[in-house]
Specification:
This protein is mostly beta strands. The chain has a single domain, classed as Porin (Beta Barrel). Helices cover 3% and strands 48% of the residues. The chain is built from 2 helices and 16 strands. A 16-stranded antiparallel β-barrel has the order 1-2-3-4-5-6-7-8-9-10-11-12-13-14-15-16. A hairpin with a 2-residue loop joins strand 10 and strand 11. It is globular, with a radius of gyration of 22 Å.
């Protein structure tokens, strides 16, 4: 489903300041474009508008470079520019625009055999995907049945966990160790687990606001691989950080803010079965207690490859929270279909969600269709 247009260039003269020992490197430019149509109908009295529909867009340009260092090690470096549909809306400095242009897919890696030392943001392996549990669908399992802010009687969106407090989007350092026949292990440390916070420009004056956001330092351990079992795919992640005293919703009186993701998929012939468990802990406090909020999500799915181009999938997921404002279990049912046209992929899903955001009676139905291409 990929039709890559690669542009290569020998970079020697432009890097002469780094020394005459710099070897020839290869630079590639790739990108992607996704255009979607979504229609939503909800039954929640507090939703404001009972239905809405429209188009969405995501696009991205990726620049990547790789080569040899003069000490014999390999290196890889790159960054991305992301332009999503709502990035330029609003007035003044837009956080989404800043993050998309400033903190997307940035990496400088030093590679020795199966060991990679990583510097950057939004590029080390991470749990930010429902791709194993919903491989045919449009993307995340989270539902968007309402168009108003959450309250005690209405929910803005679903609570099924996605990134589970992962710091992968923040700038940091990590190591990735590949074990042939098993998978890839990773450890990542972010001094401030705040997305897109990268400090000042090189050489400029600095202040605390350049380096520290509302999140403390965090570490995440991860694994992706097949554990030596043909047909098996496993993703396991765990992260934790201290609570911060710089946010009213993230107070110093809390314990550790943590996240756990365990996902497994097994393919046998034309059928793939998958299970997903996610737990997000912290970020809000249970009223009148010293307990932190816990959100747990569990899901199972079956995918059927009908032909080499056509796939069908069904997913059932459930999420719950221990907050009194989210008393009901959120239940998500998805039917999805995917079709490959070679360089263009078409995906569609119908989602029926009960008790969105853990609010009883906040029910919604959604249809979303997406056309995607890579180049």
């Amino acid at each position: 489903m990929k039709n890559k247009l690669l542009r290569t260039t020998a970079l020697v003269g432009s890097m002469i300041a780094l020394g005459s020992g710099v070897s020839v490197a290869q630079t590639t430019i790739t990108g992607n474009l996704d255009i979607s149509y979504r229609a939503v109908s909800n039954d929640t009295t507090g939703a404001g508008i009972s239905s809405f529909r429209g188009f969405g867009k995501e696009s991205q340009i990726n620049l990547a470079n790789k080569g040899k260092l003069n000490n014999g090690m390999d290196y890889a470096a790159g960054f991305s520019l992301e332009f999503d549909g709502n990035d330029l809306q609003g007035s003044g400095t837009n956080t989404a625009t800043y993050q998309g242009l400033h903190g997307e897919g940035i990496y400088l890696n030093f590679i020795s055999g199966n060991t990679t030392l990583h510097l950057g943001a939004d590029h080390i392996q991470n749990p930010d995907s429902h791709g194993l549990i919903n491989p045919v669908g449009v993307g995340y399992m989270t539902s968007y049945g309402n168009n108003v802010a959450a309250s005690a009687t209405s929910a803005a969106s679903g609570i099924y966990p996605t990134i589970t407090n992962s710091p992968y989007g923040a700038y940091g350092a990590g190591v990735i160790q590949a074990v042939p026949g098993v998978g890839r292990f990773s450890a990542y440390y972010a001094p401030s687990a705040t997305d897109s916070l990268a400090g000042p420009d090189i050489g400029n004056n600095a202040s605390i606001n350049n380096f520290e956001g509302t999140a403390e330092s965090a570490i995440e351990l991860g694994f992706t691989g097949d554990l030596g079992v043909k047909g098996l795919t496993v993703a396991a992640f765990h992260n934790r950080r201290d609570a911060s005293d710089r946010s009213s919703a993230d107070t110093i009186g809390q314990g550790k803010i943590k996240g756990t993701t365990l996902t497994g998929a097994y393919n046998f012939g034309q059928i793939t079965a998958a299970v997903d468990y996610r737990k997000s802990e912290g970020g809000a406090k249970v009223a009148s207690t010293t307990s932190d909020e816990e959100i747990k999500g569990k899901a199972a799915s079956l995918t059927f490859a009908a032909t080499k181009d056509l796939s069908l999938g069904v997913v059932y997921g459930k999420a719950d929270s221990n907050l009194s404002t989210k008393p009901a279990d959120e239940k998500i049912k998805i039917v999805a279909v995917g079709y490959s046209l070679g360089p263009v992929a078409l995906n569609a899903e119908y989602t029926n969600t009960d008790n969105i955001g853990g609010v009883a009676g906040s029910d919604a139905k959604e249809i979303i269709v997406k056309a995607s291409t890579r180049f």
